[in-house]
Amino acid sequence: MAETREGTAIHWIEPRLRGVFPLDRFHISRSLARHISKATVTVTVDRAFDEVMAGCAGRETTWINAEIVKAYSLLHAQGDAHSLEVWQGGDLVGGVYGVVIGAAFFGESMFSRVDNASKLALAYLVHRLRTGGFMLFDTQFLTPHLASLGAVEISRAVYRRRLADAVRMSASFYPEGYPPEPSAGAVVAGISASGTSQRNTQTS
Prior knowledge:
By secondary structure, the chain is α+β, with helices and mostly antiparallel strands. It has a domain at 17-40 and 98-192: 3-Layer(aba) Sandwich (Aminopeptidase). It contains seven helices and seven strands; from the N terminus they run βαβααβββαβαβαα. The protein has helices spanning 30-38, 49-57, 66-77, 117-131, 144-147, 156-168, 184-192; strands at residues 17-20, 42-45, 81-88, 91-101, 104-112, 136-140, 152-155. α4 crosses α7. The radius of gyration is 16 Å and the shape is globular. The N and C termini lie far apart (38 Å).
């Protein structure tokens, strides 16, 4: 992370308490489920990676500087970083990006230009990760926004153990049989089935 948009130093940060999303306990409230079901949006992946990064950096203060943008764009070109985009009327209104190593997904940042766009993006992302067999969704820090969706904090020691297990396993950001854009109903139903593994299942 950089100190500011203009900062040149990059800092490696390992928090004492790590934010993670338990993939089997992502929380979709009734109001969010209704929003997802009724939203007139299109959800894509890896269609606008650089634009998603720009959206995440496009706030008054940001830790995303030019060097970080360049590094993650290279990771995306190599197939190691991915984005999920939310479109409305042809406009990019929300999104999230992160890095994949083994069966771990490291969520780096997200943004929203309309109400609930980032929550919708996370719901679609969690559905994809569960289907693809991911074991760990790292959010780095826990915010009230993430906590409302089911994210929790774990100790550094517990995180390191889970990370070691996850990076030794394999998962797919493009699961076999996964549709280009799953239906809103499938996303809500798949995530709401708390405790039911979505690994290696096809979604129609």
